[in-house]
Amino acid sequence: MNAMTAAVRAELTKIITLPGVWIVTGVILALDVLVQLQPAELFADAVAKITPDGNIEVFVGQPQPASEAILGLLAGGTLQMGLFLPVLAAVIAGQEFRSRQLGLTVLAMPRTVRMVTSKLLATALCVLVVAVLIAAVNTAFMYGAVRNWNPGLLVSGEAFAGHGRFISFAVLYCLATCAVTTVARSTLTGVIVTLAPAAVTMSQVLARTVPDLDALLPLSAARNLMLDPGVNDLTAGRVHGLLVLVGWAAVTAVAAAVTLSRRDAR
């Protein structure tokens, strides 16, 4: 346990000394603020017009129960920003290949499983922090809309459960990206391979034709995990979505360990 803790600490030290990690993190958070600014006035106006029976009409002709709609918008906003987090994971995983320092890491930590595990855990911790910041930013913007109506909704159990689902998605999705980048030994390849299934999900081709297959894609799994099935057309339930994300992270992690154990470190 002490050896693993030391290994994770060493990986974290490498990560936080990388300028690229700070730059990508700053860009993601700045982009989040920019994205949240766009609909802020729309949301505030919609909340101000909540009907006496508790319905809100964020989009014309689509009335919804206000509490469910607000929490749904919060979840959708964080899910949207989660698509940018794999870039951060790929930068973290690809730094040793760019600097050709992997050989030194292998010498210091010859056990492949421990090395891969420590890298993944360190990446997960970094992504977790950024995901929490994204959730905090989105909550702050939503507070501006609901502060005169029901600000307590944003600290309710349902809200925290939604944040928990987002953080689970963010960490698991980025673990898969980190592992894929390790297998490919290329930051760009890691990003492309991870985001390609997301493009398929957004096209909705599989969702309309083969929903069972669509449910196995990581972004579809994230939608199934995070979004309200009563409002959104989903292809599976929340438990299924979580298990799919866990499966992607586990399979790619094993592939990364096998790949490193069979290649010469260089």
UniProtKB/TrEMBL annotation:
Q: Which residues cross the membrane?
A: 12-35, 69-93, 120-146, 166-184, 191-210, 239-260
Which keywords fit this entry according to its UniProt record?
Answer: Membrane, Transmembrane, Transmembrane helix
Which positions are tagged coiled coil?
none
Q: In its UniProt entry, what is this protein called? A: ABC-2 family transporter protein
Q: Which organism is it from?
A: Nonomuraea maritima
